[in-house]
Amino acid sequence: MVSLAMSITTVDRLDDHSLTVELTRLAGCERESTVALVAHLAEFDARRLYEGEGFSSLFKYCTTTLRLSEDSAYNRIQAARVARRFPVILERLAAGGLSVTTVRLLAPHLTAENHERLLTAADGKGKHDVEHLLATLFPQPDVAPTVRRIPMRTSPVAAAPATAEPGPATGQNVSPVARRPVVRPLAAERYEVRFTASAETLAKLRTAQDLLGHAVPNGDLAQVVDRALTLLVADLERKKFAATSRPRKSVAASKDDSHIPAEVRRGVAARDGARCTFVSRSGRRCGERRFLEFHHIVPVAAGGRATIENIELRCWSHNGYAVDEYFGRGKRRARGGVSPSNPSARVEPPR
């Protein structure tokens, strides 16, 4: 086995192009290894060899003997069982069009009649896109709005694992019960959204319901939250992009070259679609919506002006990338403010 220190030292000597090529090669090798593991798990499961090894389930064997994480074991076992029914899944896993996670999501819906069509529709899609695809094809009823108190624990209790242990090949699960995601699509345009609120937040929600008594007589939580978010988004867009229904031209230009007038912020946001505009050498646009910044194409330090033509939207990472490209690698660290990568960073919440 190659020592970790030796591997890091070797990788550190690679130039950017070689590192990128090697990373791509290794990702392909990992896919091949995953497909081989899934295929072997399918046969191992069919022969129930884990029982002879002293385990009551394949899941326990995988987490104990193979030392897979609970999530990894769960996804691979589900993929192995459905791949035994539809071997074409292994080909799509090897090609990278499907992952063990998306196969696990698809598994309960695959039949002899629809598997080719469904696998093709999911090919190349990530977890969230597949969840939306399934919600569109197999819509579920809306969940009833509820507000309930979370019981207080008097002593620390280990959190339940994020996945349920797969049961026998029948597809049933045994405890612990799987946790549902925070945001779950139910149908093409319907979602279940769940979160934990403080007592203060609940009090504000109740007050909003009372004040909206005439407009929303039944106090529907979805309508109340939608109205609140409509006002919040409008306020944030006004502050970030100077969005307004009655725009005015700036009265006078600022002497501060780094100041970006409101009309410029509005124009840039409209032109760039409120997304990061960075485009890679391969032609891929970043398109990130979070941590957006106004990027001077010609930096202020080099005489760049705050005009629509000289400013574009960049996410924090790609704005820093431009700093490194223009002034030299590592210069972004000298910039002030909070970054998503330092200890005091803005943390991206789960979606």
Task: Report what the structure shows.
Helix 5 packs across helix 7. The chain has a two-stranded antiparallel ribbon. A two-stranded antiparallel sheet has the order 3-4. It has a two-stranded antiparallel ribbon with strand order 5-6. The C terminus is likely disordered. The chain is extended, with a radius of gyration of 26 Å. The protein is 45% helix and 7% strand. The two termini are 39 Å apart. Among the domains are: 111 residues, no CATH class; 106 residues, no CATH class. The chain is mainly alpha-helical.
Helix-strand topology string: HHHHHHHHHEEEEHHHEEH
Low-confidence stretches: 155-162, 170-180, 341-351
Enumerate how many helices there are, as a single number: 13
Strand order of the largest sheet: 1-2
- The helicity comes to 40-55%
C-alpha end-to-end distance: 39 Å
The biggest sheet, with number of strands, parallel, antiparallel or mixed sense and barrel status, is: 2 strands, antiparallel
- Beta-strand portion reads 5-15%
Number of β-strand runs: 6
Structural class assignment: mainly alpha
Radius of gyration: 26 Å
Name the overall outline: extended
